[in-house]
Specification:
93 residues; GMP Synthetase, Chain A, domain 3; two-stranded antiparallel ribbon; 2 helices; globular
Length: 93
């Protein structure tokens, strides 16, 4: 599988991870910032919709589980300090 095909497969798997407050998945919400695929381990860098999101722990675990189901090796999920902007997801309130 090419790197791009693998990235797309991961993103597809991550659509199963839904933000409980907004009812939209992490891909739709543009929370996934970067996918770094390695030979033996990989990393997903993401942001949260709010700095103190009460669902952060469970969402991070779901993202890790979904990505590992595609890659079949360990995946580290890194939370970035940057703020999420609804406009990144094409949302206007």
């Amino acid at each position: 599988m090419t790197r791009r095909a693998t990235e797309l497969a991961i993103l597809d798997a991550l659509r199963a991870v839904v933000d409980p407050e907004l009812g939209m998945d992490v891909v739709e919400l543009a929370l996934i910032r970067q996918i770094i695929i390695g030979a033996e381990s990989s990393e997903i860098k993401m942001v949260l919709t709010t700095p103190f999101c009460p669902y952060a722990g469970s969402m991070v675990q779901q993202i890790k589980d979904q990505a590992e189901s595609v890659l079949e090796h360990p995946v580290k999920v890194t939370l970035l300090a940057e703020r999420w902007d609804p406009r990144d997801a094409g949302l206007m309130w």
